[in-house]
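Lecture notes, unit on protein representations.

Consider one protein chain, 808 amino acids long.
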Amino acid sequence: MGKNASGMYVIDEDYKIISYNLAAREIYPQLKRGEKCYHCLRNRETPCEICPVVNGIKGPKNYLEPGRNILRSVDAVEIPLESGGTGHALVFSDTKTNDEISSGMMENPLLMGIINVLGKNFINIYSVDRETHKVQVCRFQGQSGAYGEEGLRRDESYEKIMDIYIESSVAAEDRIRMHQMMDFEKICQRLTRIPQLMVHYRVRRSNGRIEYFYVKCARVGTAEDFQTVVFAFANEDMDVRYSEMEAILEPGGTASGRKLLIVVNDETDRKALTEHLEGSFEVITAMNEAEGMKRLSENYKTLSAILLDMSVPVCDEFQFLELIRDDVMLTSVPVIIITGSNRLEDEVRCLELGAVDFVRKPYNVRILKSKINNVIKLRESVMVLSALEYDDLTGLYIRQAFFHHAKTLMRFNTNQDFHVVVADIKNFKWINGTYGEKIGDQVLTYLGDTYRNQVRYGTVGRYGGDQFVAIIYGKKEIRRADMEKFIHRVESGAPIPNLVVNYGVYENVDKTLPFTLICDRAFLAMKSIRDDYEHQIAFYDDEMRQRHIRNGQMENAFVEAIRNEEFVVYLQPKYSVETEEIVGAEALVRWKRAEGTMVSPGEFIPLFEKDGLIVRLDEYVFRKVCSIQGERIRSGKKILPISVNLSRASIHYDNMICRYVKIVEENGIPFSSVPIELTETAALYNDRISKLIEKMVDAGFELHMDDFGSGYSSMTSLNQLPFDTLKLDKSLIDYIENFRGQQVIRHTISLAHSLGMKVLAEGVEKAKQVEILRSLSCDEIQGFYYARPLPWENFETKVIRAKEACKK
């Protein structure tokens, strides 16, 4: 057993404690006869992993006693029980303390450096050799659930230890993901691109309670030659600096080692504050807003709080707080305002801009320290900020971190020209679907590495999904020829053939703009060639800028244009092929500005479809048409159906059907007088569309399928959705004089008729087309051959004349 044996307890076959000696009772006061040992000692529902009885270990087994920093040795001896069964006597003795273990590591400066760098934030810290995968304990404080006892099996590999830990401690919901994320080879690959990464997961306790943990994985050495990987485990539900937080919570306690930034203009006040606080904190100072922003940008990762004196000259307009608020990485540092003002509006404004507390002059030092400590406690309950900066897959900055570093570059390199380049992988969903997500990830990783290596003066980020962004500075302009060479190099070395990436470039950016708008301009350039298969580079230029301004002006003018009824409804007549009588019309919208200029529908409709304003415009036109039909009915005129276009956005808009039904009923008109036209893409069949259209038909609306044949003809939609009329697109009619084109139209008309639908041909411009359509039994015609879109008054005149012509 060993001469230092000091404690012993006896268990039966069910692990229930039968007896124990006084030494065991002193060490483990929670021992209780009749209770299972593992429940008494560790509040577990299953036997401990280190138990020699469970593992059949012969000879003493060393383990670190949780929470006591004591290394103990335990052995188990099989003994007969008075009851007739067989039990075990577990005998344990102290070996050495955790401090003694650590002192034994003094000869290994690498491990001591790991402990010193990571500090007290983490419960357990281990290192793993990259070649052998062997595990070494750097620190073990023994908290169950944080990769504990298993890590002491130094003769076993990382893979086996990690598998045991995940299966025994990690919540079932997170196990598959945890196995994937903790794959050692994958971690090493990521660490060649980023210095560290974090994995968050949940641990389910024996009592069913869920706790949140994370493990930080970091390389020791450079990306090219590191041989050791450190794994540090922490409980997110506890304060990761628990021992130091205890000092904060005690009266008069301090947060030693925390760093404060003091931004105070008055030298006397600045020195006094520094003297009061530097015994409790590490203090750095700044005398004005510019210096304060520089200090903050340099130290934001390690700063615990900022003390800002509102008498700093440029802070009268709250500029310092505004600058912080606009940078997501800087907003993580809390700001305490020191003020001599009693103006309530000042306090409200500071709070709106993100300040967390106030200290009034003259201040009490003890109260000031208390407020600082309270703020720091909140600050340190947040996840370690550095872990949020990097994208796990590519190793590049995430979007918000990129914004921060890009703005910092611009702020402190005011004499440089800056260029922003964005990249978007074409058809990335297809790549994932065809090659699999693993290859898709390889493409993203390849591009991330390529862009990082290409940018020497600047920085690169992953904007999100399959998009990247880079900021480059220098006096050299970005030449199209150089970009094309670079693109060729990127595509020739890609993991898959025919990789296509589109690029948008915003040269010599306007530094006065918000950085998000700067990126928007680069993306605007890139989106201009999204459907262009001949070009992969687009530069944001003056023409694009003017178009962007024009679009902004149209968007800004929309509400007033609706209010002033600048949008005018034009009606294009529909003619019977057989009688050439007007049998209806389609409502089309035109925009006549207050000053008399006309805006082309091709200019404003795509814009409004993109930004969502089309929903309101659709309803505006529908109201106008219902009003026209109500007036025609009240004046005793024959009802001619006037169809109204409905965009895809409107179909999905909440309460659309109820709103349109109410408009019809308010005007006292039949639903058949205002058929609804849906484009093919808007009418693509799915359960949601089916239910919406069913409600429209039940309400009494007739449905027309618009633009049939323009690009995406869905037979499913024709089969499943109850359309009354099929409108052949002009792109089909243009080929009607061609034999093949005529056959397509012939069979389409035949199909529609067999399904009980009428057929209307759009875009008819020639007599020959009318003649062929008549021979193919088309029902109605709409196009310039008969009439262009007309204002309502002109349309009424056209109806009368067409009726008179038919009588003749």
